[in-house]
Every structure is written in C-alpha cells, then in structure tokens.
Specification:
There is one protein chain. By secondary structure, the protein is α/β, with parallel strands linked by helices. 43% of the residues lie in helices and 16% in strands. Bound molecules: beta-D-glucopyranose.
C-alpha cells in the first residue's frame, strides 16, 4: 500500500519537476549566473559509506542510479564510490569528485561530523550536496532518510512484545548499538531507550565500532560472560548485519532469545523465518533512493525542491534542511509476505532457497 502510494507520489514529483523545467535558477551564485541551465546531461557523484551491510550495494546504489537515469532519459552519468567504513578515504573520494567536477553530490557519511569539511569544500566549488540516510554536518542542500528515532522505538517495542510476560524490571537485556560516528545510531539508541528504560534492565550496552558484525559478535561474547547466559532474556541489535554476529555468539553459548535487527537484509529475513532472529525493521529503500535522485537532479539543474521535500530537519550546523523522511514497518514472521515479498524486494523463492525451504513451508511463504 505504502509503496504504491509512494510510487504515485514519486511519479507526480517527476511530472511537477519536469513541468517547472523553465523555472529560474535557485539563487546559486557559484557560476555567477552565467552557466546555462543544465538538462539531463549531468554528472552525479554518489558516495556510500560501507559494504559489510548489504543494503548499500544491493539496494541504495542500483535504485539511485536507476532513478537518475529515468529522470534524465539515460543522459546523466553517475560516478560512484564506497568508503568501506573509512572516513579519510571518504574525504579523498569527495576531493576526487570535486576534481572531476561533478554537478551534484549525494553522500552517505561514514562520520557525519568529520565530513563537514568535505561538504564545505564541495559547496565552495559550486557543487551542492544531498545528505543520504545519515545527516551529514555542513552546508548540505537536502536530506533523505527514515524517521530514525521511530526505527529505535519500533525495535524496542518489538523486543518487549517478544519478551511478553518476561518484560519485567528484573529481566536483563543486552543492547548492541551502532557506530558513534553515525547520527542515525544515536537516534536508534534514543528511540529504543525511550521504550525499554524502566520496563527491563539493560545489563550491558555497547556502541559498536564501524557497525561491524565481528565487533558485535565479540561484544555479545563479552556480555554473555559478564551477565551469565542464563540471565539474558533478549538482545537489542541495532541492525541485521550485527544481529548475524550476535546470533552466532548466542548459538555458540547454546542460547536462544529474541534478537532485534534492521534493514530487512535477506540473511536477516531468513533468520526470522527460522526463528533465530525475532524482528527486523523494514525500511523501503526505493522511496528513499528515489527522493535522493529527484533532489540531486533538481539541484544540478537549478530547480526548486519544493515539490519533493515536504519535511525539514536541522543538524548541528544547518537549520531547516529540505528533507524527505520515509516511514518504516516492523518486520516479523507474521508480515514477510505483506512487506518485502509484496513490494518485490525479494521473491519467496529467494527467501526460501535451500535450507530455508522447510521453515518457509511452515509459514506458508513458498505457496
Ligand atoms: C543505516 C542502517 C545501516 C547502518 C549500518 C545506518 O546509518 O540507516 O540502515 O544498517 O547505518 O550501515
């Protein structure tokens, strides 16, 4: 439903953007007003933060590239790079984009604060910046993401639901959060705490360097020895990648407790099918990616963002940034069909391949 509604809205946006093709340049002084308005013949720089979490290469990149191509009749070029969790490398990648004179930049920052310098450099070179998913500091022109505090609340609520009668103050849970360099991680954490605090005891809590599944695995092992395996009622994991590492540690200790996640990664959905993971947060990447593409193309062409960006956000350094924030859904065994399968993110065959066949049959997924 939501996806369909968004597709219609996105279609309307494309029409309205095309319709205002002759709109005047948006106060951009970088070219002294001399440069002719750009058509489809633009270059968009796209920088994503890491490749251990599946979403970036599997969804974000191809979806953004596809939409940019659609919006420009295949005329635009996309220059892509992935920072592999290295903030210094990402700064170099921005420099390269500036040297190559891209028309606009879409950046998902490894480190939202450290990127500020690079955003400023790009803007000084006349290149507008769209912050993607993570709210980069600095003079960005637009932002697209999800309601990230709501993601954390959704995770916390699902964990309480999974604990059921065990959701009491004497129940101990472990919280494994994302990276401190990612402002989203702070919002997920805040949202989750707002739901869990006072309802259960948070026996151990970690911020995980680089969102790394291996680091999450070590944190879980440490929590098991510190808290005692019999005393752990559930685990808050901020995303599916880390949930993978956490569940490996739990299994090694012979433990099976509810674990949360986020991203609806294929491996995460498969763990939900088998019952190893309780939930994930389904964030439909298409509307997020498409909004980024719409805004980047509009900015490169000097058009207004008004028809696309209905929200506004503020970062530590920038007020009232035009934004698109996409709603999220809690994903459990109960709604795999109505979410990721219905939206065409995965086919039932993909989810139910090989060893997942029997568990899928029990859920009626491969019928
Ligand atoms: C994203 C998540 C992702 C995490 C690790 C966050 O900023 O919103 O979807 O799992 O980074 O890359």
């Amino acid at each position: 439903m939501r996806r369909a509604a968004f597709a219609v809205a996105a279609g309307a946006m494309a029409v309205s953007l095309a319709a205002c093709g002759s709109a005047k340049e948006s106060g951009d002084k970088s070219d002294g007003g001399k440069k002719a308005a750009k058509g489809g013949d633009i270059t968009v720089g796209l920088l994503l933060p890491e490749n251990k979490t599946a979403r970036y290469e599997k969804f974000d990149r191809p979806l953004i590239e596809k939409k940019i191509s659609e919006l420009t009749n295949g005329k635009a070029k996309v220059e892509y790079n992935n920072a592999r969790q290295d903030a210094n490398l990402q700064a170099q990648q921005v420099d390269t984009m500036i040297t190559n004179k891209v028309d606009v930049l879409i950046v998902d920052a490894v480190d939202a604060k450290a990127i500020q310098n690079s955003v400023q450099k790009a803007v000084d070179a006349g290149i507008k910046v769209v912050a993607y998913d993570r709210l980069a500091e600095g003079p960005i022109s637009a932002y697209t993401s999800f309601d990230n505090t709501q993601v954390g609340k959704t995770q916390g609520e699902a964990l309480l639901k999974a604990l059921g009668a065990k959701a009491t103050k004497s129940s101990k849970i472990v919280m494994i959060n994302g990276s401190v360099t990612d402002p989203n991680a702070a919002q997920f954490k805040k949202g989750a705490h707002s739901v869990l605090d006072g309802k259960v005891t948070i026996a151990k809590e970690y911020d995980t360097k680089e969102w790394s599944p291996d680091n999450a695995n070590s944190e879980m092992e440490a929590a098991i020895s510190a808290v005692g395996k019999k005393n752990i009622a559930g685990v808050y994991s901020a995303n599916d990648g880390m949930a993978g590492g956490i569940i490996t540690a739990l299994k090694a200790a012979g433990l099976s407790v509810p674990v949360t996640g986020q991203d609806a990664e294929l491996a995460g959905v498969q763990r939900i099918v088998t019952g190893d993971q309780y939930m994930s947060v389904y964030k439909p990447y298409a509307p997020e990616a498409e909004a980024a593409a719409e805004m980047a193309v509009a900015l490169a062409q000097g058009k207004s963002l008004d028809s696309v960006a209905k929200d506004k956000v503020s970062s530590g350094s920038q007020k009232d940034v035009p934004a698109v924030l996409v709603p999220v859904t809690s994903l459990t065994k109960a709604n795999i069909k109505d979410t990721v399968i219905k939206d065409g993110v995965y086919t039932a065959d993909e989810i139910c391949a090989g060893k997942y066949k029997a568990a899928c049959e029990k859920l009626g997924l491969n019928k």
